[in-house]
Amino acid sequence: MKKRLTILTFLLISNSIWASFIYVPMSDDNQKNHLKAYGIVYYSLEAGLKSKWLLNYDGGAFLIENNKLIENECKIRGVSFQIISDAKAQLILQEIASPSSNQDAVTLEKAPKIAVYSPKDKMPWDDAVTMVLTYAEIPFDVVYDKEVLEDKLLLYEWLHLHHEDFTGQYGRFYGSFRTAPWYIESKQRAEKLATKLGYRKVSEEKLAVAKKIRDYVVGGGFMFAMCSATDSFDIALSAEGVDIAEAMFDGDASTPNYQSKINYNKTFAFKNFSLIKNPTTYEFSSIDMTRKRKIPKTSDYFNLVEFSAKWDPVPTMLTQNHTVLVKGFMGQTTSFERNTIKSNVLVLGENKVNREARYIHGTKGKGMFTFYGGHDPEDYTHRVGDPKTELDLHPTSPGYRLILNNVLFPAAKKKKQKT
Predict the structure, then answer these.
(1) Which of 49, 118, 150, 230 is most exposed, with minimal Cβ within 10 Å?
(2) Between β-strands 51-55 and 61-65, what pairing exists: parallel, antiparallel or unpaired?
(3) How high does pLDDT run on average in the chain?
């Protein structure tokens, strides 16, 4: 009996020494569900476990403090993992630390509290971020104009903007859908909400919301936006004090010669853009390249830009993937004209042939923002009324991984960006 206890004690001690970490690979060959892997890391941070993000190593793998709870969750959620010894983990970290490798190990400290800015009546499948957060089992709260104006964003570290129109022009759907019941009802709801919140027009209420979000970022928040929430946000800020909405949107005429009154100094990412004046055109400005694109679907891809992991960890985290070539996808705002992007904004993903940026990142005050063109990474031409994307069919989606990189990077212990 004493001998058996000795052996058992030895085995327990050996397990604590030699099986100290859960290793979650993220390469194409070694991970069967990349999207749910992010949820595992988030779950481990919520549980108070130590984690590291291994940048540019095995597709951006994760190293998590060993715990039976996490091991079980990996099995339940279908995430590939290995139990590795402390010695093996140290060898990996030494390899990554080598000055000759473009790799780094970033400590993840705390699960960020997440808010999704979205109308309460929107279905979850209307928004790629809502879908992938749900699929990855990452918790989030839905907030909208009332909560934003009441400064509830201060409760969150990370904010996603639904495919919103911050200019008060109802998504510029007027030309094609002005008689559609959903458009009429949506317009009425927006007007009712603006009145309830004390604003004369929807455009004025949306500008107030955009300014609150701006202040949230300047104060240190992390903001992520896709599709029309990217350019319409900047346009709304640039047009403060200027009426750019025609009468069918807000009941009165626009400011004469309003283009000359646009203030690009107020924007986050864009400059020198021209607004589209025709209200029946499904486009906001010259920022978006949707109508200028001449790329066939079969060859519509964009490249992720490589950054120095040790010197520029933030853009490196945001571009972690198991491929550098990501399938393109359309949206109201599909991609960004390079000439309209400010010089201090980083381009993370681009199609050089078409001179378009798909994925950009920058800082504003103490905070950061990322803009990602397109509507749904696995639905090439998403249209009104299209069926939802089933992420069970796309568990290794590179396009969706970029969204989850943004969700996770605020958890990282920050280093000062050097370039």
Answers:
(1) 150
(2) antiparallel
(3) 91
Residues contacting 254, CB < 8 A, separation 6+: 243, 244, 245, 246, 247
Q: What b/e string do you get for 227-263 counting C-beta neighbours within 10 Å, with b at 16 or more?
A: bbbbbbbbbbbbbeebbbbbeebbeeebeeeeeeebe
Distance CA 370, CA 363 (A): 9
Token pair recorded at residue 100: 């000759």
What is the C-alpha separation between 221 and 153, in angstroms, rounded? 9
309-350 pLDDT, tens digit each? 999 999 999 999 999 999 999 999 999 999 999 999 999 999
CA–CA distance, 56 with 215 (Å, rounded to integer): 33
How far apart are alpha carbons 63 and 87 in whole angstroms?
Answer: 13
Q: Are 191 and 248 in contact (CB under 8 A)?
A: no
197 sits in which H/E element: none
CA 343, CA 363: separation in Å to the nearest integer? 12
Strand partners, 302: 326
223 has which bridge partners?
Answer: 159, 369
Is 0.90 topped by the overall pTM? Answer: yes
Is the pLDDT assigned to residue 4 strictly greater than 60? no
Tens digit of each residue's pLDDT (9 = 90 or more) over 235-267: 999 999 999 999 999 999 999 999 999 999 999
Amino acid at 264: Y
- What is the C-alpha separation between 394 and 374, in angstroms, rounded? 17
CA distance 415 to 134: 30
